[in-house]
UniProtKB/TrEMBL annotation:
<protein>
    <submittedName>
        <fullName>Uncharacterized protein</fullName>
    </submittedName>
</protein>
Length: 275
């Protein structure tokens, strides 16, 4: 990695892994699958980091490498002696991959890793999140915001706090605010990412969702964005409406949490009449 006091050196990462992990041959395994799908259960918290690395690999291999490096460090802190089931083999595999990627990847947007991930995070926000709520489906936004959250966590381990500019802080706060709108509520994971929940496949649930999202013939309103949002403009903006609760909220100012709870209640009410 780049030579900076905020980022552990490559020689240090090799020392951590080789001193306390047993060499194991994973060369014939599918690396993308190994990264996030075969993480030992005791290290499950690093799986989202590795999934993000896989997601952004094609867009920016160097930032993907930084995500995997962060995952490796986190795994080592969680189990420094590699005593958990499958941990020693997995850490050895990940270490081998990091050594290879350290040599093969180079920053694309800057001359060092801290600046690279800082610029990439800003670019990711501007390309996907700034106008995302107006152009993307809730499921897409949930995934995008999840990726942005992981990227910011990695960024904080690579970039010294004093070097994180105000714009990046504002973007991170906006991501945090937006994520609250896409949290899972009660039983139905409306905007969950990853594998689709079984309950969402029930015909009566699907029918209820279709009924509540049938808003094509409703008049759309324009609302003024809050001034504390980084990309807020001076004028009004059309707000994307995905269901009847979005529509009611845009017209009458319902709070997000109340609207979502009401949404779930209506789902189950409609679904119960369709049984």
């Amino acid at each position: 990695m780049a030579s900076t006091s905020a980022v552990p050196q490559r020689s240090q990462s090799r020392g951590i892994g080789r001193a306390q992990t047993m060499m194991f041959d994973w060369q014939n395994e599918d690396s993308s699958a190994m990264d996030s799908e075969l993480v030992p259960s005791s290290l499950a918290v690093i799986a989202p980091i590795l999934r993000v690395a896989n997601e952004i690999e094609e867009d920016n291999p160097r930032v993907a490498y930084l995500c995997r490096f962060h995952a490796f460090e986190k795994a080592h802190r969680m189990d420094p002696t590699s005593g958990g089931r499958g941990v020693r083999q997995f850490k050895t595999y990940l270490l081998h991959r990091l050594e290879k990627e350290e040599e093969e990847t180079r920053p694309q947007l800057a001359r060092n890793d801290p600046r690279e991930i800082l610029l990439y995070y800003q670019k990711y926000y501007e390309d996907n999140i700034r106008e995302g709520p107006h152009t993307k489906k809730p499921e897409e936004m949930a995934k995008i915001l999840q990726i942005a959250t992981v990227l910011y966590d990695v960024l904080k381990t690579v970039v010294p706090h004093a070097k994180v500019d105000e714009q990046t802080h504002r973007y991170a706060e906006d991501v945090k605010r937006k994520r609250e709108q896409y949290e899972h509520y009660n039983i139905l994971p409306l905007y969950a990412t990853g594998a689709r929940s079984t309950i969402m496949e029930f015909p009566e649930i699907k029918a209820a969702i279709r009924a509540l999202r049938n808003v094509q013939n409703l008049p759309m309103s324009r609302v003024r964005e809050a001034s504390n949002v980084p990309h807020a403009s001076s004028g009004g903006k059309d707000i994307s409406v995905f269901d009847i609760l979005d529509w009611l909220s845009s017209h009458f100012g319902f709070q997000v949490y109340h609207a979502l709870n009401s949404f779930l209640s209506l789902y189950f009410l409609l679904a119960s009449h369709m049984l």
